Each structure stands twice: as C-alpha cells, then as structure tokens.
Amino acid sequence: MYFEGSELMNSQLKKGMLEYCVLATLRTSDSYGYQIIKDTSGVIDLSDSTLYPILKRLEKQEAIESYSVEHNGRLRKYYHLTETGLADIQGFLDDWQQVMTVYDYIKGAN
After folding, report:
1. Which residues form the Transcription regulator PadR N-terminal domain (predicted)?
2. Predicted local distance difference test score (pLDDT) of residue 40
C-alpha cells in the first residue's frame, strides 16, 4: 500500500501514518533525515519539508533523541528511537484492530 499524494488518503490520517513510519524506520537502527526519506520511499511520500517538523515533534514528545556525528567534515544529525517511541509503535499496532473494525464497517456500508 503506497500513499503518495492519494486523494483517497485523508490528510489527517496520512499525517499520523507519517509519524509511525518515521518511528518504524528508526526501530532497526539510528538514521538521519535523507536516509529516513529513502527508507520510507516505497511506502509513503515524504519530503524534507514534511520530515523535519515530524522529527522535531517526535523529539519534543521524547519518542526520539538526536545526536550529531561528523561525516565528510560536516556534522550529520542522527535520530534514535527511545523506549517512549517504541511504546508509541506498540500502541499504534495494538489500536490497529480497532481501525480495521471501522474499515470493515465503512466497507460494508457501501
């Protein structure tokens, strides 16, 4: 399921999905902005202007932490998933059954 600019994808629903996609990307290893965009490209359309506000929001919520590493003479900002972020992912997965119940209801209403 790819959500690139789909008119069928409600903007609020997409916004929430973006955050969870970013968190899920960081579940396996720490990463930086450009790599996060590349890693999610097969699933959801994510641009710099969309990603960085999400990263700031997730950092403020303590779902992720950041640190800098020198790379080719420049500092690169990396992001790390915290226990809070991991719990957020689990909460999303736990709630997914309720989302599917609503989906099935809507689908059956047609």
Report:
1. 22-88
2. 93
